[in-house]
User: Fold this.
Amino acid sequence: MSDKPSDKPSKLQQLKSEVEQLTEALKRERADVINIRRRSEEERLKLAGYYKSMIVESFLPVIDNFERSLKHIPEQLVDDPYIKGINGIVKQFEDTLSNLGVKRIETVGKDFDPNLHEAVSMEGDTGDKEIVTEELQSGYTIDDQVIRHAMVKVKRQ
Assistant:
């Protein structure tokens, strides 16, 4: 079988068409791979953030207890080196949390925000503004995500 001269242009066109189709298919596959890698990385980061917040949340009661104990230091022990050492440990713990992206939620004197605060009691019946008057337990966020709401007392003004 020999190709006729008139068959050559159509054969060439057919081959060009196939090359274009294969090139487009390859481009789509490459785009799919890029998207899969991107989604995989996003999921990995999301999972890492989830585990980080779980671990940090498990340490929060420890810092709560340190802070409670430091509020009840007898007067005669305030300047004791042991107490200063405990204060240093608490400061180091807070610095470590800060380095992990953990932030303490601001409370006293701030407007009550149900996204950040958990109201334990409400004082006052009048007024449109709800102001946090006391913090009962600190709340924390990681990367703007609440890992524990601050327990607070609120007053209407």
In short: The helical segments are 7-71, 81-99. The chain has a mean pLDDT of 91. The radius of gyration is 31 Å. The CA atoms of residues 60 and 140 lie 9 Å apart.
